What we know:
Blueprint: H1 14-34, H2 37-47, H3 50-55, H4 63-67, H5 69-72
Amino acid sequence: MALTDTTSAAPFALGKLLAAPFRAIGNGLIALAENNSRVQQIETLNAMSDAELAKRGLRREEIVRHVFRDYMHL
């Protein structure tokens, strides 16, 4: 049986080195979006059951419109 080594002999790959700044920027943008209070409110409302949403006078398809109602005039 033959064995194949699939690891790179180089301590770092050029592609990974060039992609690192873009990966960091992307991760930063994701962190910003996830920490946005509106996004957190959407996640909280999405976690509710349809009955709980109905008690608040909302339907699931209206959540984003409800959260951004004062900002985007949707």
